[in-house]
Amino acid sequence: MPELPEVEVVRRGLDKWVRNRRIDAVEVLDPRSTRRHLDGPEDFQQTLTGCTVASVVRRGKFLWMELDGLDTPAALVAHLGMSGQLLIEESDAPDEKHLKVRLSLSDLADTPAELRFVDQRIFGGMFLSPLVPTADSKAGGAGSISAFIPQAASHIARDVLDPARSVEDLYLSLRKKTTQLKRAILDQEIISGVGNIYADEALWQAGLLGLRNTATIRRNEVSRLNDALIDVMTRALAAGGTSFDSLYVNVNGASGYFARSLNAYGREGKPCLRCLDNGRESLIRRDPFMGRSSYTCPVCQPRPRRQPRA
DNA sequence: ATATCTTCCTGGGGGC
DNA sequence: TGCCCCCAGGAAGATA
């Protein structure tokens, strides 16, 4: 569920409330949420206990806490999947229905003592992963000040808001592929942080159809798409992210309000606002896509003209 | 090797 | 009220 803006909102909250605090106790309430920790929940708990959070870093939708106090450098990785939440809570707050992992933090005045991982669908999780130097040079992703990345996230490309990324690299990566444009921008190994909402929003803003084949995409189209991705995610971040319901909230349980600014996603049957501005009328349509949905404006994002038969 | 499909889960909402 | 089906911010691993 959460895409780059939502994960970055969470990262900032963790940085504020958890950085420099020691993890005094770890409780795994559902081992399915630590299944990516291959040594098992007991090892997860024992290794993590006593560590101090040195920094909170993000690349794409991956979030991690660099830890002090381990023999070999490692990070506590958190991925929110479709429904994960990281919440800062007082110890006496009642357990959430889907509470999966509880971290008890060292005392700090006027600061809640627990970091909780709550996840309804269990597609997300927490695990420890060794830190390795980033393979793609210089510092890590946006929201990062680290030259290291967890091994488990080392295949993830630089994200939309990473200043070390270039449009030309995106163009070349897309041209190397033979697939639909939307599939490509959802591929976290091409560009990271984009999910179904912001893919549709950026494609709408750029006036491109996600069904376009990447092998024929042009530089100016990639440039438009890149600008749109950066713009939509920057605005979403400023709004605290997109919340359709209580499943996405920041570390303090508050919703973001970017849902009201969406132009395509979830707007099936509603007027395309850009067409309206231009004195035209068209309705956003929804089409099945990869087991989910794509929302497009048939006027702003025209289907490619059918090639005439030779 | 590359591209696409299947699977991991729970719960809300609509139709009957 | 209940049941069944569809749908949902993701991505690893299997399969073609």
UniProtKB/TrEMBL annotation:
Its cofactor is Zn(2+). Monomer. Keywords: DNA damage, DNA repair, DNA-binding, Glycosidase, Hydrolase, Lyase, Metal-binding, Multifunctional enzyme, Zinc, Zinc-finger. CDD domains: EcFpg-like_N. SMART domains: Fapy_DNA_glyco, H2TH. It catalyses: 2'-deoxyribonucleotide-(2'-deoxyribose 5'-phosphate)-2'-deoxyribonucleotide-DNA = a 3'-end 2'-deoxyribonucleotide-(2,3-dehydro-2,3-deoxyribose 5'-phosphate)-DNA + a 5'-end 5'-phospho-2'-deoxyribonucleoside-DNA + H(+); Hydrolysis of DNA containing ring-opened 7-methylguanine residues, releasing 2,6-diamino-4-hydroxy-5-(N-methyl)formamidopyrimidine. The keyword DNA repair applies. GO terms for biological process: base-excision repair; response to oxidative stress. It comes from the Bacteria. Belongs to the FPG family. PANTHER family: FORMAMIDOPYRIMIDINE-DNA GLYCOSYLASE. PROSITE patterns: FPG_CAT (PS51068), ZF_FPG_2 (PS51066). This is Formamidopyrimidine-DNA glycosylase. One of its GO terms (molecular function) is zinc ion binding. Residues 263-302 form the FPG-type domain. Gene3D superfamilies: 1.10.8.50, MutM-like, N-terminal. Residues 2-124 form the Formamidopyrimidine-DNA glycosylase catalytic domain. It comes from Glutamicibacter uratoxydans (Arthrobacter uratoxydans). It holds the Pfam family H2TH. The gene is mutM. The keyword Aminoacyl-tRNA synthetase does not apply.
